[in-house]
Amino acid sequence: MKGLLLSIAVLSITTFSYTQVATVLHEKSYIEVEGSADTLVVPDMIYLKIEIDERIDGKTKISIEDQEEEMKKTLIANGISLEDLSLSDANTDIVQVKWKKQILSISNYLLKVSSAKEVAMVFEKLNEIKINNIYIEKVNHTKYDAIVKEIEIKAMKDAKHRADYLLHAIGETTGKSLIVRHNINPYPYPVMRTMATPNAIQLDENGSSLLKNERLDIQFSKIKIASNIYVKFEVK
Fold first, then answer.
1. Which of 88, 120, 140 is the last residue in one of the domains?
2. Count: domains in the chain
């Protein structure tokens, strides 16, 4: 019996040792690298949040409906399609607030424009009809998905290039990829520069321009779309 137990123990140790050796022999050498790529684009989908609130002009209450109608006429007159104008999301659609013992309504709209020039025009023309609460809600680009694909491909090629020249230095070559992880940086908010010629725009307490015959000029800096890709390559 002792001899049988000893034989089983020896067999178990031998099998375990063989498995360890086989694992080491079959473990693949690898190299880990990161590839990156980016590009700069000017946003061509700019979303403006427009807030209209009931106001008192002397003894007259100016309703949201009247201001909305005037806003629509102004936008159409300046080449903006009403298809690009919509009420904001339900959470900020219509709000009732108390102000000076009166109930005044506030309504939020979202307007899509395609250039900084149109942004400037909307600010200027709506300011003329006393709609002053306008904000840049978000930006995007019509070809964003296509740009992302192009950047990811460039980042992957960059990772392969890095692995190639590093392994070439020690006389080895890059094998197939074993692991790939990629990350696309979200859109950063673009820097907006506001300028007027010849002086800077100044607004009075009602939001009206103090400089006559001056046109607001808004310029966006380009936004960066970047991709970073981690790749684990087999070493041949």
1. 140
2. 2
Contacts of 45 (CB under 8 A, 6+ apart): 112, 114, 139, 140, 141, 142
pLDDT in tens, 36-61: 999 988 889 999 999 998 887 777 88
**pTM, 2 dp:** 0.65
Distances (CA, A) of 143 to 98, 140, 159, 194: 44, 9, 25, 26
Least confident of 10-19, 73-82, 214-223: 10-19
Whether a cis peptide bond, with omega within 30° of 0, leads into 198 is: yes
Q: What is the pLDDT of residues 124-159, one digit of tens each?
A: 999 999 998 898 888 889 999 999 999 999 999 999
Q: What phi and psi values does residue 92 have, to the nearest 5 degrees?
A: -125, 25
Coil, helix or strand at residue 196 = coil
Q: For the domain that residue 173 is a member of, what is the CATH number?
A: 3.30.110.170
Q: Are 178 and 233 in contact (CB under 8 A)?
A: yes
Q: Print the domain residue range for 228.
A: 29-43+142-236
117 vs 122: CA distance, rounded Å: 9
Distance of alpha carbon 108 from alpha carbon 99, whole angstroms? 18
Alpha-carbon dihedral sign for residues 171, 176, 180, 184: positive
